[in-house]
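[Automated response] Your request has been received and processed.

Submitted sequence:
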Amino acid sequence: MKTVEIIQTTANGNNRRIGRDCTVLGFLLLLYHFTAKLMGYVFYYASYAVLSKKFTLSWETIKQYFSDNYETYSSTSFQMTANISVTLATILITLLTAALLFKVNVLSLVKPSSENAKTGVKWLPPCFVFNMVSSTIIAYVTGFLNSVGVSVPTSDFSIHKPSVAAVMIQILYVVILAPLFEEIIFRGLIIKMLSPHSKTAAVLVSALAFGLMHGNIPQAASAFATGLIYAIIALKCGSIVPTMIIHGLNNLIVNSPELLEGLGIKNMNGVISLVEICVGLAGFLIWFTSYKYMIFETEKDTAVRKTQMQKVLTSPLLVIYLLLQVFYIVWGMISANS
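Generated structure:
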């Protein structure tokens, strides 16, 4: 009888820990989301004050100002500076809140080492292949939807008002800072909070949140697919260093045509295609020889695994966060077709 009571007490304690960690994670993800929105407004208010040498609390005045100065607003230098400033402020607030309020040290999953760096370089080609295959499938689906009159919004990474400064800022954000920030949140934070309870749920939620964060269907689908691989690698290594390397180099390869064009370097499509083919061939070879690496041990007790997954996937704040991201994607589709 006492043994049964001990088991029940342990189970109740585990459920409380899962509930607490999921609630904290959901809160931090919502904080990250809404802080980014708030910091976006702060950036534009500050930019208006600097550029116009005036101060106003009227958002309509600021919108009108940037509408009248669209060339400045739409330039890559301005947009990338906005992304860097907003994301940096957002992640600092999120990490400080996690550390000070909830005693969660997300950076403990960084763990730089030569072994983790080698893992990142090794798994870049397979992840690149996975990304290209998923992107190609989504491109066909998007093309079909466009052919029947359904507009599918996507992100524009072309460089407006090209200059060396614009390209350098874009490289800084797309190749270095965005991978760093996104890996800290969508692999570091989520894997750290959820993997002790359910590795499968940690991988799934990490990939789902990463995909939906991109805000449009084409990027969300391909990011979800690659996010599954990223999450497994981060989980197995106990570090986000490999995925930071993969993420950054993948972004560099994918965006290289726009970056080279922005620098005025033309007729490089053949070279870029050759690099992509070589990386792709290496990726297929690694998939065929090392695919078992993607298999990770889950909880041995099936009943326990199902219960823990259910607790994670039905956590109210986590569900609210994910549904909020879905809402933005749906709203974007409705706006593009209205």
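Summary generated for your ticket: The chain has one domain: 2-336. Residues 2-336 form one domain.
If you did not submit this request, please reply to this message.
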